[in-house]
């Protein structure tokens, strides 16, 4: 039986991977990074837990179990990383060599460490191709011409934001940028936008210009829709072919119940 390891962060994405792997008779070894990960993943027969800074121990665990391919799935919030990180000897050495602590710098340093030790990191959409955003409007509610002008501005702002590795989400209203994602993440950015601009905002989420599909593929799911509904948002936009759309049926149903459009768009 084929084996694949998963480094598990928060959110539902690792659970979807486990479900798809089971359908394909793949033996999965989930390795959790936080206490807050889904309980169903913790209940998996192969589940183990490590601190995110124990990179040497993580590599050793995978190799001892005959695993040379892994995926990295789930949210790893930057504020949590630096608050709770416990470094082993290899983690300390890795951090010392980094020129900065940007998301991409950290992620690619870890991937490089895995590769040097014979472990290949697979694309995050491995087994999850059907979960990618398509170039279409998913809801009966569609964006107006004015909405599309605002969306265009949001896309430009989101791409500029992601180029400096500051975030991937922008919230706009009436052709103006209302909020840019920072260290707090997408959900809190949406909440802040609602506090600043009220209802009628459009949430735009894009991939990085040179998005590496092995790490941090942006995603929209039911929690994103809930946050948008809470602020009375007009719609949510995701980049087709380069983003994941999770909880699709539930998300579409909730959006339509609240007169909110969900648009996938090719950029």
From TrEMBL:
Domain LpxI N-terminal: 3-130
Annotated Pfam families: LpxI_C, LpxI_N
Domain LpxI C-terminal, chain residue ranges per copy: 137-262
InterPro entries recorded: LpxI (IPR053174), LpxI_C (IPR010415), LpxI_C_sf (IPR043167), LpxI_N (IPR041255)
Superkingdom of the organism of origin: Bacteria
PANTHER family: BLL4848 PROTEIN, LPXI FAMILY PROTEIN
Name the UniProt record assigns to this protein: DUF1009 domain-containing protein
Organism: Fusobacterium mortiferum
